Amino acid sequence: MTDVSTKPAAPSRPRPIKTPKVVGTRRALSAEEIAATGLRDRWYPILPSRFVAAGEMVKVQRLGVDWLLFRDARGKLSMLEDRCPHRSAPLSVGQHLGDRVACKYHGVQVDGTGTVVSVPGMPGCALEGKKATVSLDVAEAADTIFAFIPLTEDSQPTEFVLPDRLQDPAVSWFPNYAEWAGPWRFYMDNVLDPMHGAFLHRDSHSMFGGDTSARFRIRETDRGFFFEKTDQRGVNFDWVEFCRGSMDYVDLEIPYAQNAGPGGVFGIVGMATPIDENNSAIFHWRTRRVDGWEREVWRFLYRTQLEARHWGVLEQDRVVLEALAADADVDEHLYQHDLGVSRIRRMYRADAQAQAKQLVGAASV
Predict the structure, then answer these.
(1) pLDDT at 168
(2) Quick one: average pLDDT of 304-327?
(3) CA–CA separation, 127 vs 278, rounded Å?
(4) Do residues 236 and 198 touch, judged by C-beta distance below 8 A?
(5) Looking at domain 164-349, does it have CATH number 3.90.380.10?
(6) How far apart are the first and last CA of the chain?
(7) What are the residue boundaries of the structural domains of the chain, listed by start?
(8) What is the reported pTM?
(9) What is d(CA 144, CA 274) in angstroms, rounded to the nearest whole number?
C-alpha cells in the first residue's frame, strides 16, 4: 500500500495572467492596433440623432466594433454591442420589443443596459438577469448621438461636455455628417494643416485670399494647442486649435465676406470617429455668432446658398484624402508647415502606447 504522506508534491503551476480585453474586441490590442482603430476612454460622435427614430434599430461600426443603436417608444436611446450573449448572433437582425431587443436566433431578450431579461427557450436559466452584453453610456446634444467608448470593462466614463461653440446659446450652428473611405488619422492631419486651404481650396468662396507662403508656430493652451500663421490672420484658414476635453476636436475660423450674411467670421467644430482602420465618420458643425433677426437671415442664407458651397469644399478634402495610399504618412519629407501634423501624430502615438501599456499593467495586478 502506498504511503500517501511520502508522495512527492505535484509541481505548482503558475496562474495564467489574463490580459484585459478591449471592450468589444475579446482580446487585448497592441499600440499599433489602438492607433489604427481609435483611442479608447473618450467620447465620440456616433451618428446624427435623426438617423435613429423612435422604435427603430440601427447597426453601426465604430472603432472596429459592431454596435446596435435603438430607441424605445418614448425616444430613450441605447447602444449595445451587436452580439447576443448566447451564441453571438447579431442583435441587429432581431426584433425591437420596445425597451429590449430579441435575438432572432433563439429569442434571447436583452434590454438597453445589456441585461438579459428573458430566455424563452429555457426560462429561469442562469443567463437571465445577467448583464452579459456591452452597453455604452450615451448622450445626445447638438443634434448628434455621442457615446463613451471604454478601453476595458473597468473604464469609467468622463463627464460629457460639448465644445464651447456648441454650448453657447449666442452661436447658431448647422451639423454636417459624412463617411470617408480613409483612416481617421488622415482627417486629423488635414485639419492640423491650415496651409492646404490656400492651395486645395483656393477656388472656394471663402479661402481664395492671402499668401501661398507663410510661417507657423505652435501655441500651447490649457486644453491643447493652437497651430497658427505668424504673418497672416483673418484672411484664409489661418489657424486651428486642437482641443482635448470630453472628446478630441478641432476649432477653427474662416473669414467671410459681407455678402455671406451677418455674423462675422464663420466657425467650424470638427471631429472624426474611426469606423475601422480604413474608414471614418466625419462630423462638422458650421457656426456663426449671430442673434435676433440677423440670426434668421443667416440661417436662411446658409440653407439656400452657403450649405451647397460648403459641401463642395468638404468634397475637395474627401477626394484628396481618399486618394492617399494607406501608408501615405509613413515615408514623407515634412517641413515647417507640418509642425501641427507632427505634433498631433506624436500625441496620438503616445496615447496609443499608454493605453496598450495600461492593458499590460492591469494584467499583472
Answers:
(1) 95
(2) 93
(3) 36
(4) yes
(5) yes
(6) 45
(7) 42-149, 164-349
(8) 0.91
(9) 16
DSSP 115-167: BEEE-TTSTT-TTTT-B-S-B--EEEETTEEEEEE-SSTT--PPPP---HHHH
Which amino acid, one-letter code, is at 24?
Answer: G
Query: Which residue, chain included where needed, has cell 486644453?
Result: 223
Percent of residues in the chain assigned helix, strand, coil, to nearest 5: 25, 30, 45
Closest CA to 356 of 35, 89, 6: 35
Q: Do the strands 171-180 and 279-289 form a parallel or antiparallel pair, or are they unpaired?
A: antiparallel
The values of phi and psi at residue 154, to 5°, are -90, -5
pLDDT at 3 > cutoff 50: no
Choose among 325, 284, 352: nearest CA to 182: 325
Question: Binning pLDDT at 50, 70 and 90, where does residue 6 land?
Answer: very low
Q: Cβ(192)–Cβ(292) under 8 Å?
A: no
DSSP code at position 19: P
> Hey, what's the cell of 27?
482580446
Longest CA pairwise span in the chain (Å): 104
Sign of CA dihedral 332, 336, 337, 343: positive
Query: Does domain 42-149 bear CATH number 3.20.20.110?
Result: no
Answer for the pair 281, 177: CB distance below 8 angstroms, yes or no. Answer: yes
